[in-house]
Amino acid sequence: MKIEELSFEQALEKLEEVVKELEDEGISLEDSMQRFEQGIKLSSHCLKKLNEAEQKIEQLTRSEEGRLVTKELEVDTES
Amino acid sequence: MDSNNNTRIYSVSELNSLIRQDLESSFSNIWLEGEVSNFFFHNSRHMYFDLKDEESKVRVVMFYQNNRKLPFDIEEGLHIQVNGYVSVYEKRGEYQIIALDARPVGRGALIMAFEQLKEKLSRKGFFDSSIKKKIPMLPGKIGVATSIGGAVLKDIVSVLRKRFPNFHLIVRNVNVGGMTSAPDLCQALEDLCSYGVDVIIIARGGGSLEDLWGFNSEELACSIYKCGIPVISAVGHETDFTISDFVADLRAATPSVAAENVILDKNQVTGDIKGITGVMLERILHKVHTSRKHVKTLIDRRYFNRPLTVLGNRYQDVNMAYRDLVDSTSAIISNNRHREMRTAYRLVPDRIQTRINTYRLIIKNSSTRWMTRASDRMDSRKMKIDHIIESLEKNNPVNIIKRGFAVIYDTEKKENITSIDSVSIGDRIGVQLKDGHIKASVLEIIKKVIKVR
Hints:
CATH class of chain A: Mainly Alpha
Number of strands of chain B: 14
Order of helices and strands of chain B: HEEEHEEHEHEHEHEHEHHHHHEEEE
Radius of gyration of chain A: 21 Å
Strand content of chain A: 15-25%
CATH class of the domain at 116-264 in chain B: Alpha Beta
Largest interface: A-B, 45 and 49 residues
Number of helices of chain B: 12
Shape of chain B: rod-shaped
Order of helices and strands of chain A: HHEE
Oligomer: heterodimer
Helix content of chain A: 40-55%
Radius of gyration of chain B: 54 Å
Strand content of chain B: 15-25%
Distance between the termini of chain B: 181 Å
Strand order of the largest sheet of chain B: 1-2-3-5-4
Number of strands of chain A: 2
CATH topology of chain A: Helix Hairpins
Distance between the termini of chain A: 47 Å
Number of helices of chain A: 2
CATH architecture of the domain at 116-264 in chain B: 3-Layer(aba) Sandwich
Structural class of chain B: alpha/beta
Helix content of chain B: 40-55%
Strand order of the largest sheet of chain A: 1-2
CATH topology of the domain at 116-264 in chain B: Rossmann fold
Largest sheet of chain A: 2 strands, antiparallel
CATH superfamily of the domain at 116-264 in chain B: Response regulator
């Protein structure tokens, strides 16, 4: 599976695996470079996922025909 | 006695039937409250009992198809409310209530009903931890079933805004108050499921046991149990427990706690990932450092003296890559200090990547390269030797003599004569040619310097 297609959880899990592998003293320089490269890709994918969406609050109702529809909802948390 | 032919004479069954129809239409849907007495559970599993208050009583029948769904057991002395219609048992001309639903009244009764339902659902496996679904760390859409005007929604939104500002919330308005909120709560779950969310919070604020009763219904328990999407139940205060809390995949003590559990803390996790990236960098630097040391150890071994330059070049490659990596890392770290974290994050991986690619290339090529260099060096050495041999060949005196030149020497001292100053008139000298010697004597000395360009 390509890194870009991983869910946040999957990517984070893989990232932790990579770190564990990197901490193994027996790993070769070549392999550790490869892991590191993968790790960097994974962490940047995770960070991308964290910033993907924008804040949105919607109310779920039914239209006159009975279809589920959403409309924007304002929630004032200041007062 | 007057005989009025117009007077209508009813038969008994006719009257009972008419009264039944009359009562059934007049009292087609009522709630009746009272204390259970003369309770009788028939073999057919229909229930017969009286409901009474201080003054009077009325007969109640609850058939099996209705009483089997009850979340509690009806028993003698229990204070309950029944829902149903008024009818007449025509055979006896007795009116009675046909109960379709019942619920306990009063705190004691509610607690009893709660305990009974909890026990029943527990036996059915509704609360098994093995069927609990995992709450996603980063849900795309968060569904909430709660009252839209209440403080609960504000609490949830307020926590989410702090915790993960770019959340996406889908709110389904539910009247969460009172004993009758269960059907709407079930419908809300269904709606949120069909609309498509990644996790659902069902929530309401604190209240009396009656206020929270909708969350103690078997109906809602079944809906949560069957729901394919993880459900968080957040009802009342910390000390309030409802059936929905037990069935849900996660029980949150309050709606605010639900919001804390429904999505990760963005700042914290961003920091964690930064930390992990740091650990990886540290490991890779350590690895490069170790490799560098390893190469140096090889160089230091005496028997590697000869290929020292070759190894030294490789050492230098590794060393340069290491310095490169350190430089770029410190650049990144100082960047992190000055830029907004998000920006820095976007930059870091790219920068490291470039460095890493360079580094990888150096390592990969270095082995090929040092071999090439060595062979280049060998070639140039060979050329030098060839040149020397050639030049030696050219300057070999034997070859010069071969070309017709001669060597003149002092026959006594056996030394070459290279200047007129070394001889006087009458001296005996020898002349070496390519095929033999000539013995001669000096007749005349003429000074003439040969100019060399």
